[in-house]
Amino acid sequence: MSIDDTEVSNLKKICDEIFGEVNFITIFIWQRAFAPVNMNKFASRNHDFVLCYAKQTDFLSWYGLPRSQEADTRYSNPDNDPRGPWTSGDLSVGPPVPEKIYEIVTPSGRVVYPPKGYCWRVTKERFAELLADNRIWFGKDGDSVPRLKRFLSEVKSTITPLTVWTHQEVSHSQDAKKELKELFEDQSVMDYPKPVKLMKRILELSTRENDIILDFFSGSATTAHAVMQLNAEDGGNRKFIMVQLPEKTDETSDAYKAGYKNICEIGKERIRRAGEKIVQETGKTDLDIGFKVFKLDSSNIKEWDPDFENLERDLFDLQNNIKEDRTKEDLLYEILLKIGLPLTVPIEEIDCRGKTIYNVAYGSVLICLEDEIDLDLVQEMLKHRSEHMPPKVILKESGFMSDAVKTNALQTLKKHGITDVRSV
To answer: Where is the DNA methylase N-4/N-6 domain (predicted)?
Structure first.
């Protein structure tokens, strides 16, 4: 969660209540600006806060940042150690512990002690083991204060992040506006977008290749852009869920004049354009840049609220229980949610004499929401069932040509071992 210093204290109190104080990780400082604003009376604020919480820190997967070439160049191998490049660290530490204060004789014969107020990091016995394992460095001439060798091959493959993120690392707000204008042909369609590098930094710390990322206040969909970019860079298959209220754009804004009447339209177009740009720049034509759009609405099924004075009319209306303004796709996705399948499940549309059969999850679920369902259509569905287990079959209740066809269809399915048949 990113916020400025006006409300950061209140936001932290709210998050402590929601997630629990024990699940607070840290507050990162993002340098969102680099030039002072002299019109500010007291101070020119140039940073925002990024509050970081876990649902449960005990089970949190935290991955660190990829090691940079700059970090690895600090390692060298002046003594040709077969274990490869290494760097050295101070062998002294404070405060002093009596049993860790002892003399060390360098290869040149010089006797050295830890500095005043310090002791050696290890005991005399442990030092002897490290020396025998060639993990102590006395300098090229063998006369320097001893240092402990740390090998590149033994350090973590990632780096623990600092809490201050400079604009050189994760970009600033002007970079974010520039990124968006480049995608939208120099039009400023969003006032305060976040830079892709900032969101990518958060993803690198907290996600693996197959994770699902939810942004509940997605705005211009920078998070989706960052997910696709990171997938292109590391070969991941992360998925995103962007949630945004359809807030109307100002009628005087560039976004409104360009045809984007609400923020959701900006986000959708940003995902399309960003995906195409990433494919063009990387040449990875197999990169998954597709997405589906859903909106929150009432059920596609009519509610049963009988009027006992007109019961005959209500019963007649109930014969077709699907709302008139809903499509087959609307009903399909409601069914998927109700039977516990994700909205990203593979769906194949099969054409049978102009009618559509939905083959869901490679034949695990077969759905037909057509009118005038006959036995030929049922036989066609059987051709696409899963070879591993009997599928779940879902049919439109009012779609059967007659009650006799419905009875025969159920018997046909039962004959082929399919007993989980439902109607909507």
So the answer is: 2-242
